[in-house]
Amino acid sequence: MVSVVGSQDAAALLPHFVEHYRSMGAESFQLVCHAEAPSDDSYIHLRDVCRALGVEPLHSHFGPWRERLNQRLKEYVMSRRPDDWYVVADIDEFHVYSHPLGELLEKCERLGVDHVNGCFLDRVGADGELLKVDTGSLWKRYPLAGAVSTGISKALPLKTGIARGRVELLTGHHSTVSGHGLSRSEGFIQVHHFKWTESALLRLRHRVDSLSQVHWQAENYALIREAKAALTHLNTHGGRINVDDGGLRIAPCGHDYADHPLWDEIADEAEGWAWTLTY
Q1: Could you tell me the CA-to-CA distances from 71 to 3, 32, 50, 176, 231 in Å, in that order?
Q2: CA-wise closest residue to 267 among 195, 177, 193, 190
Q3: What are the helix (H) ranges across the chain?
Q4: Residue among 163, 17, 226 at smallest CA distance from 7
Q5: Tell me: the pLDDT tens digits for 221-264?
Q6: What's the pLDDT at 279?
Q7: pTM of the prediction?
């Protein structure tokens, strides 16, 4: 399991994250903490949470966020053991697999592929409210799911969620630079995305301000455009996700692979974004 942790919800999500991936069969957690400075209260608290969970971070990185930072930190971790398999996920990304993780890896070995792709299923509160992450079940607290990030912000929904250490990932692990992926018919990951929480408005405003003022470095203007589009949607709908917008394909959803009634449509649409990728 490899992840870069440092977002505003990181400390609250981490216990859920570790429990989820341990239940999936992850054998070790290669975490990299990111903060502006080692004196940040949020970083100190995050380290305490890691220690309590028994997942002492492999490395910590300090400094402003940059567009390719997460990608490079993950590459650093994965390159240390290039033949190992890694589950790759941001702290708000919870995978649900069509088959047990061990079976997926055996299938990859047998077919000679080196990564498995999937796409977002954004989790939403019952009426679209941006709820605070608490200690209760995330699946019950955010009982709806859909293609929210894509529908609102036109954000790329594709994700590479399992990969050999030698595989070079694109920014945000939205795909790979090269290699052979498992076909969708053999396995495609649901990436349940717990992004739309209480802190979403603050995070989006901070992203726009930091990128606009060049405090954060970005090579792609789409990052600002996506954040502004999300802010516009939330402001238009009273600080909530509009769950009645049919284009977002929002429906009740548990944490089983077959739960979402529009999953095939969402996956079809996500695969249609592949042409936007540049190698």
Answers
A1: 10, 11, 21, 11, 25
A2: 190
A3: 10-24, 41-53, 69-79, 101-111, 138-141, 148-153, 200-212, 222-236, 263-271
A4: 17
A5: 577 788 889 999 999 999 999 999 999 999 999 999 999 999 99
A6: 45
A7: 0.93
Over residues 166-179, mean pLDDT: 87
- Phi, psi dihedral angles at 270 (to 5 degrees): -60, -45
Dist. CA 263–CA 251, nearest whole Å: 10
Return the sign of the alpha-carbon dihedral for residues 169, 173, 174, 180. positive
31-69 pLDDT, tens digit per residue, is 999 998 999 999 999 999 999 999 999 999 998 877 678
Q: Give CA–CA dist 64/9, Å, rounded.
A: 18
Of 254, 215, 218, nearest to 36 by C-alpha is 215
Do residues 180 and 102 touch, judged by C-beta distance below 8 A? no
The whole-angstrom separation of Cα 198 and Cα 133 is 7
Query: What is the CA 179 to chain-centroid distance, rounded?
Result: 21
Is the separation of the CB atoms in 58 and 30 below 8 Å? yes
- The token duo for 21 is 């991936």
Stated as kind and residue range, the H or E segment containing 123 is strand 115-124
Quote the CA–CA distance of 263 and 182 in Å, as a whole number.
Answer: 18
Q: What is the largest CA-CA distance in the chain?
A: 51
pLDDT, tens digit (0-9, with 9 covering 90-100), for 193-214: 999 999 998 888 877 776 666 5
Tell me the chain's radius of gyration from C-alpha atoms: 18
Q: Decide: 36 and 12 in contact? Cβ < 8 Å.
A: no
| Buried/exposed code over 61-78 (b: 16+ C-beta within 10 A; e: otherwise) | beeebeeebbbebbbbbb
> Which pair of structure tokens corresponds to residue 278?
């540049």
Instruction: Please tell me what DSSP assigns to residue 89.
Output: -
